[in-house]
Amino acid sequence: MPKPSPSIAIENEAPAKLIVDPPLPEPLSQGRVFIQYRTENLRMLPVFGKGALDVSPRLGHVHITVDDASWHFVDTSGETSLLVGLEPGSHKVSIELADPMHNVITSATVMFTVPSIRH
Fold this sequence. Notes:
Elements (H helix, E strand, L loop, with lengths): L16 E4 L4 H5 L3 E3 L1 E4 L2 E2 L14 E8 L6 E3 L5 E3 L5 E10 L5 E11 L5
Parallel strand pairs: 4-5
Antiparallel strand pairs: 1-3, 2-7, 5-6, 5-8, 8-9
């Protein structure tokens, strides 16, 4: 079945989905965290505000929080998230799929361990 066109409004849109993969093993073994994610039934675009809620197909972005920080960063690229400089040890990253008003639609959490790297 073909995907809907991003140029035509969709009646009764299916719920937005967030799919998050665990960090890629090779970079993680070197202390770099590459987390791939994708969305379904939502286009990632840097469009915000109440007016964007009425756009079809649905628009949104992600909020990314590292280790329960009191802040998060926003990503609209839909590309792999890259984290560097984390201390060796256990970490968690929360990725929230949000609408243009920053209301969370759904979320996923990834847990991983950054190894101690010996030079």
